[in-house]
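S.,

Sequence below, as promised.
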Amino acid sequence: MVESASFIGDVSFANFLLFLFVVLFTFALGSILNALTLKLLKDRTKPVIQKTVSKTVMYLVYGLGLYLAFGKIINFNFPAGLAALGILGIGLLLPAVPLLQNIASGFVLTLERPFKEEDIVEVNGTLCKVRNVMLRKTVFRAFDGRIIIIPNILFMTSSPIINYSKGEFIKLSLPVDIKSPSDKEKAIEVIQRICTANPNILPNVPEKKMDRIMKLVEIPAHFFTIPKNVKALSPRVMIKNVNKDKLSLEVWFWIWDIFRKELIISSFYGKLIEEFEKEKIKFG
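The prediction came back faster than expected:
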């Protein structure tokens, strides 16, 4: 008991019971306040603000409660405790390393905010909505209904996130092959006509959305990869390959509603089949 006294003060049985009570009470109180805060802010603020405030309250309660339990009730000295445990202490810490890495990554995500709750993102090729960003993990809901849970450390090392909510428009590149190169001009004219008529393809966007896009594409002027006016986002048809059997085209157009991406693509190809039949253009 001589060694233990160096990192834990004289702990009576009553203090030990008080320590257990404070730890359990801390986690219970934190969870309750988290739920109450969410309920209180519901319908008053945006979901991202609700969750940020509720989590802040919960983690503050956790921090204060654990500090009181370990630092004040049993007077635990962490450096002395690990030194006394020696190899055993290292062995106990090793399994906790991934947990600590995930928690540290959670803090980085909280500070940098590459994505937040309710954002529309793409994770490993799957389109999702961010459901809950926690210290150790992040929960996503895929558009097909799946719940995807990813440890936060992966966002720092190997799982890039495409955040569609932070952008204003998305470029799509669709292949179109035609059999006869002589139909090139007619095919390009048909494709341009279809894109121009589609209300979901730029520059056909609602006035409010157009204002936001114009502000984005106008600045900064030195950033040449962003077009300086929205006309630069008009549909384009590029020739990708030519051989004796077919002519390969690639259609570029920009959309502003990621939710409708698959429907827009399907609508484009459906209309293309219909118009090519009218113009007697054969697919390659």
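The longest helix spans residues 13-41.

Coffee later?
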